[in-house]
Specification:
It contains 22 helices and 28 strands. The protein is α+β, with helices and mostly antiparallel strands and about 700 residues long. Among the domains are: about 190 residues, Isoleucyl-tRNA Synthetase, Domain 1 (Orthogonal Bundle), CATH 1.10.730; about 100 residues, Nucleic acid-binding proteins (OB fold (Dihydrolipoamide Acetyltransferase, E2P)), CATH 2.40.50.
Length: about 700
């Protein structure tokens, strides 16, 4: 009886078709999904990897208005650009679909109607919503900015404050402004359909925290990343009904008679795009899409950035549960953010590099696709934010790809041709045994990939070529060959090294697929196929050859060329041009300073009681990476103050710091802790904070006038 192949449905977040993707996007949600899918295919799993363009929502219409063209022209432009970039960088999607396709519209409508028929999943709420008169449209939450009511951060969005992490509604913002016109929006009555997300809190918590769903263990919570679980559990404390409709002309119309002028909100429509993409793939390949979404032997894995965790771990699973029959995600190994040379990617400032632009700028760079894939994997923001730097890109390339992997493969091929005319030599029993030493490293390589630790996995991959380099150097066949050209030691050494090269050609495929193909070509082998890793492992365990004795390999060619090459400066010049662009931005950059606020009276000022104080204790607050809980000595008393400074100060570094405290600020609860004042800070143009404090130690409790 034939054993059924395990099915794995892999998704990467659908990118908005309103702009080009940059390297941060690629490292966050797409490259990890590609690595995992390629690896599972090597094991012979039945993998379907879906993605596509998210082509609805306010951001599309806004971009269209700015460029003076139709939304359809915008989505066509960026869908084609991003799809081509993905193809050129080696993404192995089984389908790259579009949410503007008729099949997706039908799927989203059917999904909604099934939930609506249930009678207890939605409620219609009439409310006042912000409306931009100048742009003649209601404003999505992200297109409203204002002052956070909880921490007074002045750049909070209508759905969330990125300073204190609080979940907000636009109506809570102080002094709200439209990001379209820059003016105060007006409130206008409208009605919307709300998904009763709060009804799902109990089972979601059990599913996320314990892996339990309907009295069954459906996943191991220990395998979920801690920042993913932490963010989810923080959200579950205060789930509310969530609007699933918007007043827009661009989107999927709500298929009800009483919903004229309403379209699905993009967060409801977009994840259903995974389902419609799978349906289209199944139609194209004569498969049953339900086997992958509803089958007991199928696992669903979402690859996203940390800003998409809540949608894929809370909202979409609740939608799937409400519909019924669908599998819930087996894992959501969300990455954090990749910065660029110490700053966030910024299209408006030209800070960073877009994926398609990299491919254009590096068109003459040998193996450009794998060079960037490798550097991004080595610096992938798997559990915390990381930073891409061009100097590190060079070091990863020259010191690891060239000096380790490329050097080993080239030496083996050159020596094989020199001593055996490119024919894999006969091996002794002792020679075969030497290969067993790589088995533990392969096992570690597999463990790390299966745990979504791709940075560690690629280091294990390099350990195998390091082992090969050391083995070759220890054998030194060039020394033995001089005195004994027929030496079995030389034959054993080159046999083993050729087996390692063949092994590397397979293990490289998930990470650097272009190099994998090139190595296979140098070995006179076909490209790696599904299930090949299983075959390789079986052969190694049984001491069978990966490359049989007598196999003819091709003439050697360099796999990679050094960037820092004194004989050829063409590659380093490409990097220098990238650095020059950044230097120019910095040279002409003016500090962005906030304008002086409205004039206040002296009476307003003297209402503020600002006191000197000293921080006695400091600790991080669970489930947030921004807040510290501080105990501050104000002389006459000690106060608890919650402050959003955790990104800039470690708790142990602020103890003893003298600070200025707004002491008569009304207490406010933040993350369940009553904050009894506010620490005064200064903020520069990068958003970095530093203490505003006395130059001299004036003791605690002194009044600032």
């Amino acid at each position: 009886m034939t054993k059924k192949r395990e099915k794995i449905l892999v998704t990467s977040a659908l990118p908005y078709a309103n702009g080009a993707l940059h390297l941060g996007h690629f490292a966050g949600a797409y490259l990890p999904g590609d690595i995992y899918s390629r690896y599972q295919r090597l094991l012979g799993k039945d993998v379907v990897y879906v993605c596509g363009s998210d082509e609805h929502g306010a951001s599309i219409t806004i971009r269209a208005k700015k460029e003076g063209i139709s939304p359809k022209e915008i989505i066509d432009k960026y869908h084609n650009l991003n799809k081509e970039s993905f193809q050129n960088i080696g993404m192995s999607f089984d389908i790259y679909h579009r949410t503007s396709e008729q099949l997706h519209h039908e799927t989203a409508k059917e999904f909604f109607l099934k939930l609506d028929k249930d009678g207890d999943q939605f409620e219609i709420i009439e409310s006042e919503q912000y409306y931009d008169k100048e742009f003649d449209q209601f404003l999505a939450d992200r297109y409203i900015k204002g002052t956070c009511p909880k921490c007074s951060y002045e750049e909070a969005y209508g759905d969330q404050c990125e300073n204190c992490g609080s979940d907000l509604s636009p109506l809570e913002l102080i002094n709200p402004l439209s990001t379209l016109s820059g003016k105060n929006p007006e409130l206008k009555k409208t009605k919307h359909w709300f998904f009763k997300l709060n009804n799902h809190a109990e089972w979601l918590k059990d599913w996320i925290e314990n892996g339990q769903f309907e009295n069954k263990k459906v996943h191991n919570p220990q395998n979920w990343k801690s920042h993913v679980k932490g963010q989810c559990l923080a959200w579950l404390d205060d789930l509310k009904p969530r609007a699933i409709t918007r007043d827009l002309s661009w989107g999927i119309p709500v298929p009800l008679d009483n919903a004229e002028g309403k379209v699905f909100y993009v967060w409801f429509d977009a994840p259903i795009g995974y389902i419609s993409a799978t349906k289209q793939w199944a139609i194209n390949n004569d498969k049953n899409w339900e086997d992958y979404w509803k089958g007991e032997d199928s696992k669903l894995i979402h690859f996203v950035g940390k800003d998409n965790i809540v949608f894929h771990c809370i909202i979409f699973p609740a939608m799937l549960k409400a519909y019924g029959e669908y599998n819930l995600p087996f894992n959501v190994p969300a990455n954090q953010f990749l910065n660029f040379e110490g700053r966030k990617f910024s299209k408006s400032k030209g800070w960073g590099i877009e994926l398609h632009q990299y491919l254009i700028d590096f068109k003459d760079f040998q193996n450009k696709e794998d060079a960037i894939r490798y550097a991004l994997i080595r610096n992938m923001p798997e559990n915390k934010d990381s930073d891409f730097k061009w100097d590190e890109f060079i070091d990863f390339h020259d010191n690891e790809l060239v000096a380790n992997l490329g050097n080993f493969i080239n030496r083996v091929l050159v020596l094989s041709h020199k001593y055996f005319d490119g024919v894999v030599p006969q091996v002794s029993v002792e020679g075969k045994v030497a290969l067993e030493k790589v088995l533990p490293i392969i096992s570690e390589y597999q463990t790390e990939i299966e745990g979504f630790n791709f940075r560690k996995a690629i280091i294990k991959f390099l350990e195998i070529s390091s082992f090969g380099n050391t083995y070759l150097q220890d054998c030194s066949p060039w020394v033995i060959y001089k005195s004994d050209p027929e030496s079995q030691q030389v034959k054993d050494c080159l046999y083993v090294c050729n087996q390692i090269v063949c092994l590397l050609s397979t293990l490289a495929e998930p990470f650097i697929p272009f190099s994998s193909k090139k190595i296979r070509k140098l070995l006179n082998l076909g490209e790696v196929k599904n299930g090949d890793l299983n075959i390789v492992l079986e052969q190694l365990k049984n001491q069978n050859s990966l490359l049989k004795s007598g196999h003819q390999i091709a003439k050697p060619e360099l796999l990679f060329a050094k960037i820092r090459d004194p004989k050829d400066d063409s590659r380093i010049k490409i990097i220098e041009q990238q650095k020059a662009k950044l230097a120019e931005i910095i040279a002409f950059e003016k500090p962005i300073q906030e304008p002086i606020k409205e004039t206040i009276t002296y009476e307003d000022f003297i209402k503020m009681d600002i006191r000197t104080g000293t921080i006695l204790k400091a600790e991080k607050i669970e489930k947030t990476d921004k807040l510290l809980k501080l105990i501050v000595d104000l002389g006459m008393e000690k106060r608890t103050v919650v402050s959003g400074i955790a990104k800039y100060y470690e708790p142990n570094k602020v103890i003893g710091q003298q600070v200025l405290v707004l002491a008569n600020l009304a207490p406010r609860k933040l993350r369940g802790i009553e904050s009894q004042g506010m620490i005064l800070m200064a903020e520069n143009e990068k958003g970095e904070l530093c203490f505003a404090s006395p130059i001299k130690n004036f003791g605690n409790g002194w009044v600032v006038k």
